[in-house]
Design a protein that fits this description.
Blueprint lengths: L11 E5 L2 E5 L10 H17 L4 H14 L4 E2 L3 E3 L2 E7 L7 E6 L17 H4 L5 E5 H5 L6 E7 L5 E7 L6 E7 L4 E10 L4 E2 L5 E7 L5 E8 L8 E5 L6 E6 L5 E7 L4 E7 L8 E2 L9 E8 L2 E8 L7 E6 L8 E4 L5 E8 L3 E8 L2 E8 L20 E2 L8 E4 L9 E7 L6 E6 L5 E6 L11 E9 L5 E9 L11 E5 L13 H7 L4 E5 L9 H5 L7 H16 L8 E6 L1 H12 L6 E5 L5 H5 L7 H8 L6 H10 L12 E7 L8 H12 L4 E6 L10 H19 L12
Family: Belongs to the peptidase S9A family.
Keywords: Hydrolase, Protease, Serine protease
GO molecular function: serine-type endopeptidase activity
């Protein structure tokens, strides 16, 4: 018999609002304590022993992922300046190689392609120059992440920033692309997203405070010591993050400060990079806005997407010289449409939005005022948006890499549960849609074998909650419960959209159903959908998920003994909550980097990101109502003596967003009541898990093998396929 490790109990009192909570496992927070590391190691050994019978299945899954993936591949080149930029991958190498090749002339807007018998790994594109080989940079490190990557406008310099710990603190370096040698510039402990100003003489970057909040923007002159860098902007309000950017026109630099509910943008003429940034709209609590620069009828305008008295956002324009002056309405508010953003180009504007739970893209000409697409939209102020249309009932579409101000095309990506990720260029002047590349799927993949559809569960309060499903129609029979994975997230207005996944095919080929519960707290159905699943409405996220699970059981799509719940990060909170609320509905629950001790974390302003999170969850430190509400759903604090489903919690030692201690404490508490709970801690990883594609595939294979085993799916995945 394999005996699970038992964490020692060392009671700690937490006292707030006259409530006393005894936490027996808070001591696990100190990851420098040898006893903590020993306990995590023992948990890993126990998990390895308990899952040893899945080793062959894990290896089979890994080989399936690998076998279906074109390991030597080339991304679709993106034109910027005088170059086509792209990334190559090579079979056997964990990471990509960032490259560029010269354009043939100023009118060269069709990206070069490799012929069917060509080998992009062997030769790349004609005239290729390798800018950065992530494999070389990652050598000697257990973890590697690229957080910033930008080439100066004249193409002469590269800045890149690397994290080799998983703690999301990056070191910036600058490379001379003529020589391939790094310059002396080196800036440590930065956040991601650094960039050059249009002159290439300066670079702008952000640093974080002790709570891991990006709070300061800096300007660095290439060639100078980092110690003399200039502080450009400091944000004292602990609810706000800061970031820096440049408009596509390269005419303005921007600094944005934003919380979950409020934003404030500052603008500076790029021709004066050492000048002072000026506020576009002063911050007002609850008002969010984004800024784009456009030229309309020869006039510099700022396009502003905002939610001031427009819950689903609207689009206005203002004079760049007088942003707080008169406004022109371009896209008015629509209760049925959540406007998510716009991109401005020399001759046109693109808009991205959601309608009926699906993403949409529309285009409007600014030179003629007419749209460009096969659908129709409407606006005023001289812009007429036309929507791009697609045939599938479920899909995800969004604009892609479009860095050039005067480009004649719009790059966009499209995918669905059945359609591999596909890249198109849309020619704005003619409406022509050019297929550039579809994600290769090696081996036999026949989309006609699969079905995707949408179901609607009805919540207890009468709200209809969408569920997206995909399965193989030849392996899933109507009325016969199938092994099913139900995925959920439901926080931060983050939407989980239907998209293609090569690894997921290994579940579907074993007769499994994959479903997404689009619960409140996400953004699938607009801003009100999000508002109904946050703060003192957070329980709606949990009950929506449960109602979706019951709906699938009632339809005989699945049954409780064949249903596994899956979620990560804030979705891990969802997993922990439904485990307590409806354990009888699930055979298993997989929780990745799960936020399962939310009250302890949100009560401590010294922890990473805590104060920022008050806009999402409420402030339990100062508000007793919020404290009581969160205490009522905290997964850790509501573990009870009941029959829990099998639970697998996966975490990372260096995660700075959801600390490993939360799932470690949760699993220890679950063990007290006899739950079959496993804890797996990646010792060299961050919030996103391990780095490197092969390592990530092995991590996914571990998770999938557990899901298959718990749901009772056939392990072989050798269902017959048509030749």
């Amino acid at each position: 018999m394999i005996i699970p490790p038992l964490a020692a109990k060392k009671p700690t009192r937490r006292v707030h609002h006259d409530d006393v909570y005894i936490d027996d496992y808070e001591w696990l927070r100190d990851k420098d304590d040898p006893a903590v590391l020993a306990h995590l190691g023992a948990e890993n050994d126990y998990t390895d022993a308990r899952t040893a019978h899945l080793e062959l299945l894990r290896e089979q899954l890994f080989e399936e992922f690998k076998g279906r993936t074109q390991e030597t591949d080339l991304s679709v080149p993106v034109r910027e300046g005088r170059w086509w930029y792209y990334t190559r991958t090579v079979e056997g190498q964990e990471y990509g190689i960032h490259c560029r090749a010269p354009i043939t002339g100023p009118d060269d807007w069709e990206p070069p392609v490799i012929t069917a018998d060509g080998d992009p790994a062997a030769a790349g594109l004609p005239g290729e120059q390798q800018l950065l080989d992530d494999n070389a940079e990652a050598a000697g490190h257990d973890f590697y992440s690229l957080g910033s990557f930008d080439v100066s406008a004249d193409g002469s310099r590269l800045l890149y920033a690397v994290d080799t710990e998983g703690d999301e603190r990056y070191t910036i370096r600058v490379r001379d692309l003529a020589t391939g040698q790094n310059l002396p510039d080196e800036i440590e402990d930065t956040a991601e997203g650094a960039l050059f100003d249009p002159s290439g003489r300066y670079l702008f970057y952000t640093t974080v405070d002790d709570a891991w909040r990006p709070d300061t923007v800096w300007r660095h002159e290439v060639g100078a010591a980092a110690s003399v860098d200039s502080e450009v902007f400091y944000e004292p309000d602990e609810r706000f993050w800061v970031g820096v950017g440049v408009t596509r026109s390269r005419k303005f630099l921007l600094v944005e400060a934003g919380s979950s509910v409020t934003t404030e943008t500052r603008l500076l003429a790029a021709a004066d990079p050492t000048g002072e940034f000026a506020v576009v709209w002063p911050r007002r609590d609850g008002v969010e806005y984004d800024v784009e620069h456009a030229v309309v009828n020869g006039e510099d305008r700022l396009l502003i997407v905002h939610n001031d008295h427009a819950v689903n956002f609207e689009l206005v324009s203002v004079a760049a010289a007088d942003p707080q002056g008169p406004q022109r309405m371009l896209l008015p508010h629509d209760d049925a449409v959540r406007l998510e953003g716009v991109d401005a180009f020399r001759d046109f504007v693109t808009a991205e939005y959601r309608r009926d739970g699906l993403t949409r893209v529309a285009i409007a000409r600014t030179d003629t005022g007419s749209g460009s697409g096969s659908g129709s939209g409407s606006g005023s102020g001289g812009l007429d948006f036309a929507e791009l249309t697609f045939d599938e009932p479920l899909f995800t579409v969004g604009t892609g890499a479009n860095p050039e101000w005067d480009q004649p095309t719009v790059r966009f990506g499209y995918t669905s549960f059945l359609t591999p990720s596909t890249v198109y260029d849309h020619v704005v002047a003619t409406g022509e849609r050019r297929l550039l590349k579809q994600q290769p799927v090696r081996g036999r993949y026949d989309p006609s074998l699969f079905e995707q559809r949408r179901e609607w569960a009805v919540a207890a309060d009468g709200t209809r909650v969408p569920i997206s499903l995909v399965f193989r129609r030849d392996l899933v029979r109507p009325g016969v419960p199938a092994p099913t994975v139900l995925y959920g997230y439901g926080s931060y207005e983050h939407s989980i959209d239907p998209g293609f996944s090569i690894p997921r095919l290994s579940l579907l080929d074993r007769g499994m159903v994959f479903a997404i519960a689009h619960v409140r707290g996400g953004g699938e159905l607009g801003r009100p959908w999000y508002e109904q699943g946050k703060k003192l409405h957070k329980r709606n996220s949990f009950t929506d998920f449960i109602d979706c699970a019951r709906h699938l059981v009632d339809l005989d799509v699945t049954s409780p003994d064949r249903l596994v719940a899956d979620g990560g990060s804030a979705g891990g909170l969802l997993m922990g909550a439904v485990a307590n609320l409806a354990p009888e509905l699930f055979a298993g629950i997989h929780a990745a980097v799960p936020f399962v001790d939310p009250l302890t974390s949100i009560l401590d302003p010294s922890l990473p990101l805590t104060v920022i999170e008050w806009d999402e969850w409420g402030d339990p430190l100062h508000d007793p109502e919020v404290y009581a509400y969160m205490k009522g759903y905290s997964p850790l604090e509501n573990v009870r003596a009941t029959r829990y489903p099998r639970i697998l919690a996966v975490t990372s030692l260096n995660d700075t967003r959801v600390l490993y201690v939360e799932p470690a404490k949760w699993v220890a508490r679950l063990r007290e009541v006899g739950a079959d709970a496993l804890l797996k801690t990646e010792m060299s990883a961050g919030h996103g898990g391990v780095s490197g594609r092969y390592a990530a595939w092995r991590e996914r294979a571990f998770d999938f093998a557990w899901l298959i085993d718990v749901a009772g799916a056939h392990p072989s995945g050798e269902a017959p396929l048509p030749e």
